[in-house]
Write a structure and sequence with these properties.
Blueprint (H helix, E strand, L loop, with lengths): L1 H18 L8 H14 L38 H93 L7
């Protein structure tokens, strides 16, 4: 009988090894590889990427009613200190949270103000540079116009001089028709 027990236990040991690889604790790299392989098996399936959780706001308002009101007797029980300490801890946590919130609000407000100032400075600088570009363009356009006018004038003067010379010649030269 002991042989059959040993034989069946041997079969279990060898059978489990033959059935597949033994499961062991995976290293983080192996876990990541396994997850990536699983994702890549079904490439068409959309992957859900969770959004970043918002910070918890545990600023609980103080309760309207007070539990464990201490009596008017002279002595305090053995549990009173723990009740007092827990109440004090809650109050300090509430005050600390209020301070943190006010600090965050103040920092956010300062950041917004600084951002507005920076935008205003950038806008002012951009406007200044835009005006400078416009003045340069206007000056270049005026220079072109003045050059054209000067050329036109010189052309007109040349034409006038040519016309005057012809007039002078015609006056000095006798007409062939009259003779």
């Amino acid at each position: 009988m002991s042989d059959t027990k040993n034989k069946s236990s041997d079969d279990e040991r060898t059978g489990s090894a033959a059935a597949g690889p033994k499961k062991h604790h995976f290293t983080p790299q192996e876990l990541q590889k396994k997850q990536l392989d699983k994702l890549l098996e079904k490439i068409d399936k959309p992957v859900h990427i969770p959004s970043r959780p918002s910070p918890k706001k545990s600023n609980k308002e103080p309760k309207d009613y007070v539990k464990n009101v201490q009596g008017s007797s002279a002595g305090a029980g053995s549990g009173e200190f723990h009740v007092y300490r827990a109440g004090r801890r809650r109050e300090y946590a509430r005050l600390r949270n209020m301070e943190l919130e006010s600090k965050e609000e103040r920092e956010q407000r300062e950041y917004e103000e600084k951002l507005q100032e920076k935008r205003a400075q950038d806008e002012e600088k951009t406007d200044k540079n835009r005006a400078k570009r416009q003045r340069r363009k206007q000056r270049a356009a005026n220079n072109k116009l003045s050059k054209r006018k000067a050329e036109d004038r010189s052309d007109d003067e040349n034409e006038d001089e040519d016309g005057q010379e012809e007039n002078k010649r015609s006056k000095h030269e006798p007409d062939n028709d009259e003779q």
